[in-house]
């Protein structure tokens, strides 16, 4: 329903940013994507323009992007931020259009024609490739694909079959996502209590015959990007099973790296027996070994299945760099499953220009009336809260710059709802999301936070019956 200036309650908070004066009083914005950055953009629009109407357009039926489908299922404290974000979507000036994909159901040009301003908050959408031989072998997965699976993303591949025959796992990366993946791989079943791991995922993880998980970083322990908190969580969880590759003790700390306790705590781990002997089952089961200064150079096929990964070959990075050819260390680790946690890549689906994994923009502005926030703007780095600062800054710019340009006749632009109706498209509105949410909470059972519905179930429960 269209609202005029007098019918909209003034919700400006004391920290609201003043906007440039406008002739028509109500502007309608579209926010594309309902992850952290999209939701914080909605918050900012509500605060900074007390009259703005905001349509949130989300490809999936459910909101919250990677908070729902990336953040580890046993970190419910982190996921709980959605309760704050949901308040923005619940605001009467906001309309949620779930299961509507820009570029498929409506074009970006159509959005530009139906809104005063458009804010893209579409994130980054695929795992970064390492670009080494054998990366396409079965059993080599990116962390986005793996996290989608353990978070029940409706489009995720099924990793159960891979896990069922995985004794040796290699996790490549030295950031928090590598720790999430490793923790879930080595956790015992009782550690899933309180999470939202589905029974299928929980069975696959706990029944997997994993003997060892080698976590391999390219650089020294001093460069590890683990947060101290997450590292300690893994060290506690795998106490007695977690060791350090002895060679990591010899890697140098380059100047200024050891500003936190992290490298010291890594180096204080017990050293594993000669890692080169890996391949034999290691006791105890689900041992974790941290290795550093190793660059993956090839994924090698399994002896009995040439389309499946069987090992990863690494070379020592510092020895390469220092042209210390005589001391180049080569290491081949057996691997039935490899999870690469090396970041994400941006696919420029709107053809707006991108390089280095981010869209081309100027302080968040892509072109007149079109802005970008979040990972699509900055690339895949920073925590959930980083998106708030960023989205608020970009929205301040949008509020100051966007004039009432779209309709031209003084009326508030219609938004996409009439377009969706004319195309006979169904969508999930905010009430529909709440029905999905409630159904998932009802299905949770005693030791789970929620049980996510499959994509088709989400649509059955959540989408509007008659557009
Ligand atoms: C595996 C993993 C674990 C993480 N764990 C943590 C953690 O523990 N703590 C932490 O602070 N941060 C964590 N992060 C980082 C955090 O998730 C990001 O900072 C945040 O999600 C980025 O938000 P975003 O809105 O830019 O992108 P996203 O969350 O990816 O949201 C983008 C949204 O846009 C939608 N979309 C995309 N294209 C379209 C389209 N064409 N039309 C309509 N909608 C579209 C997507 O469906 C999605 O909902 C993690 C990230 C990953 C990948």
Q: What would the keywords be for this entry?
A:
about 475 residues; alpha/beta; FAD/NAD(P)-binding domain; six-stranded mixed sheet; six-stranded parallel sheet; about 30% helix; disordered N terminus; binds flavin-adenine dinucleotide
What does this structure look like?
The structure is a single chain. By secondary structure, this protein is of the alpha/beta class. The chain folds into 2 domains: 5-125 and 346-462, Rossmann fold, CATH 3.40.50; 129-344, FAD/NAD(P)-binding domain. It is 30% helix and 18% strand. The chain contains 17 helices and 19 strands. A 6-stranded mixed sheet has the order 3-2-1-4-19-18, sandwiched between helices. Strands 6-14-7-8-10-9 form a 6-stranded parallel sheet. The chain has a 3-stranded antiparallel sheet with strand order 11-12-13. α1 (36-48) crosses α14. It starts with 27 loop residues before the first strand and ends in a 5-residue tail after the last helix. The model is unreliable at 1-23 and 274-278 (pLDDT under 50). Residues 32-38, 57-60, 65-67, 70-71, 75, 78, 101-103, 121-123, 143-144, 147, 177, 180, 374-375, 382-384, 387 line the site of flavin-adenine dinucleotide.
